[in-house]
Amino acid sequence: MTDxxxxxxxxxxxxxxxxxxYIRQQRxxxxxxxxxxxxxxxxxxPYLSQIExxxxxxxxxxxxxxxKGLRISAEALYVQAGILDxxxxxxxxxxxxxxxxxxxxxxxxxxxVYESFRKENATPRSxxxxxxxxxxxxxxxxxxxx
Length: 146
Fold this sequence. Notes:
Blueprint: H1 8-29, H2 34-41, H3 45-52, H4 60-70, H5 74-81, H6 90-98, H7 104-122, H8 135-139
Organism: Kibdelosporangium persicum
Domain HTH cro/C1-type: 23-77
Protein name: Transcriptional regulator ClgR
């Protein structure tokens, strides 16, 4: 069934499964057991298990706690859960997000640095700082004695 033919309830169920799979994948990548993550996130072991199996759709607050336990950005979980839209950024940002060898924190740091460079380079050339030397000072200088 495609997204267009799914009912709203089916779409919500899919989001629950997707976020659960994503959390399980991130937990596995971090080499943390379900029990350890439940302790780190401050949620019960059975509740976290239900989230991972797609039986429960966690609130934004619970996602934030899970993100903290996984040491990934809450934004990544919010996007996966459908709470936030996927950020834009073009092919470089997409490549960073798709790299499976980087963890979420590393991806976010790279995206932040990349975006700061893009913003810096987007400033108009006329706004670039000019020399602080006044031309009249240069013309009126005295020759130095040697």
